[in-house]
Design a protein that fits this description.
The chain is α/β, with parallel strands linked by helices and 405 residues long. It folds into two domains: 34 residues; 337 residues, Alkaline Phosphatase, subunit A. The protein is built from 16 helices and eleven strands. The strands form two sheets. It has an eight-stranded mixed β-sheet with strand order 5-4-6-1-7-9-2-10, with helices on both faces. It has a three-stranded mixed β-sheet with strand order 8-3-11, with no helix packed on it. Helix 12 packs antiparallel against helix 13 and helix 14 runs antiparallel to helix 15. It is globular, with a radius of gyration of 23 Å. It starts with 13 loop residues before the first helix and ends in a 21-residue tail after the last helix. It binds zinc ion (ZN). Zinc ion (ZN) binds next to helix 14.
């Protein structure tokens, strides 16, 4: 997210800097006639009264003052997350173009150091202050419960809290019949109009049923015109159409999704925001392990920048949770199947997740044997806001182990 076109400089609390007039009372009492002084004094009193009411109501609000950000890395394998780059793919010229360059970048014999090279934010800040689930070496298992093991069924399970193999059985652009957690939150008065989603893949508006859900889902090569606009956003709208289109019109590079989200978050400050990255899956399908690693590394960097911004912002700092997840796994047992995922690819139902936030205990890499499910993520997102996800359909409970109490 640190893709600031203004030189990646920290823009702390931009709202307050951009709109200082709202808080400034220009008042010069000297040299004014008496009557004017009285008027100005009453204006000042009224202003102070409003400030007092504002302070009081923000005091009351702070009881439920929680924000949540969700990021997914499409088809990012748990094997690479926990072990770092896989030597049988990294050293293989079939999957890695310039092996010398990429070995230097991602390889070291120590697996703990290696995974830190691939995802340095995950394996520093989140490992220290949050939680990471899915290391099957210690039977900490996270699985999808749908029987499809590809994207739409995975995102459906993640965000509706229930698999739906009967109806969600392709990646076709079919409006999702089931209410998702972001939509449910957007219907609560506290979050109405404060929910937004960004995705690289142009199927997200259907998965999240943008039309019914009523919040912005900016995906594919769609320009953003909603909300407060900036010059940077207008530039990004133009630039995104100028990238090469390896995935035709279906998917833009994550750099645009990341930058769009970054710009929106800073200028519009949503309470609930989802960012769906896609590069990892696309590069894996095309057999480019080097680009898959670069994509994962950059996704981690954007997450780091997002978290740094959130913790530096007056509104978000200390009140915001972040959840990172994936829609499905990929093959590994048969090494060449690392490119693929579907119900016939062994292990493609194996996933991982990570979280950080004020209610999340600092347990780092969770090494206790357990079984978690993708369908628990929706309720977990709501729980991060102190809410219980209760749509009309049955949903899985949150990951209870994740929370302090
Ligand atoms: Zn895929």
């Amino acid at each position: 997210m640190g893709f600031s076109l203004d030189g990646a400089g920290e823009r702390l609390a931009p709202f307050f800097f951009e709109y200082p007039g709202a808080y400034r009372i220009a008042f010069k009492p000297a040299h004014l006639p008496f009557a004017q002084t009285i008027i100005m004094k009453s204006i000042l009193t009224t202003a102070l009264l409003f400030l007092f009411i504002g302070a009081f109501s923000s005091c009351v609000q702070s009881q439920t003052d929680r924000y949540v950000f969700v990021v997914t890395l499409d088809g990012m394998r748990w094997q690479d997350v926990f072990h770092g780059a896989d030597s049988s793919l990294l050293f293989n010229t079939e999957y890695t173009s310039d092996t010398a360059y990429f070995i230097k970048k991602y390889w070291t014999p120590d697996p703990l150091e290696r995974r830190r090279r691939l995802m340095p934010f995950l394996w520093s800040v989140i490992e220290r202050e949050g939680q990471i689930y899915g290391n099957r070496d210690v039977q900490n298992n996270v699985n999808v419960s749908n029987g499809k093991w590809f994207s739409y069924p995975g995102y459906n399970e993640l965000f509706t809290g229930a698999p739906d193999d009967a109806r969600i059985n392709s990646n076709a652009k079919i409006p999702n019949p089931t209410v998702n957690v972001f939509e449910w939150l957007n219907r609560q008065p506290a979050y109405q109009g404060k929910v937004a989603a960004f995705g690289s893949w142009d199927v997200f508006p259907y998965i999240l049923n943008e039309e019914r859900a009523g919040f912005m889902v900016n995906a594919g090569f769609e320009d953003r015109t909603e909300g407060r606009m900036s010059e940077q956003q207008r530039l990004l709208n133009r630039l995104q159409h100028q990238q090469p289109k390896p995935w035709l019109e279906a998917e833009r590079y994550d750099v645009f999704t990341g930058a769009f989200a970054d710009e929106y978050i800073r200028t519009n400050q949503p309470s609930v925001c989802y960012i769906g990255f896609g590069d990892t899956d696309e590069f894996a399908h095309s057999g480019d392990y080097d680009m898959y690693l670069d994509a994962a590394r950059q996704n981690d960097q954007w997450i780091a920048d997002l978290w740094r911004y959130l913790q530096s912002d007056k509104k978000y700092a200390g009140k915001t949770s972040l959840l990172i997840a994936t829609d499905h796994g990929r093959g590994d047992a048969v090494k060449s199947q690392w490119r693929d995922h579907n119900a016939s690819v062994k292990g493609a139902d194996q996933i991982w997740m990570a979280a950080i936030g004020p209610e999340i205990a600092a347990r780092g890499e969770v090494r206790t044997p357990m079984q978690l499910w993708q369908k628990q993520v929706a309720s977990t997102i709501a729980r991060m806001l102190g809410q219980t996800f209760k749509p009309a359909h049955e949903v899985a409970p949150p990951v209870a182990e994740m929370f302090r109490n």
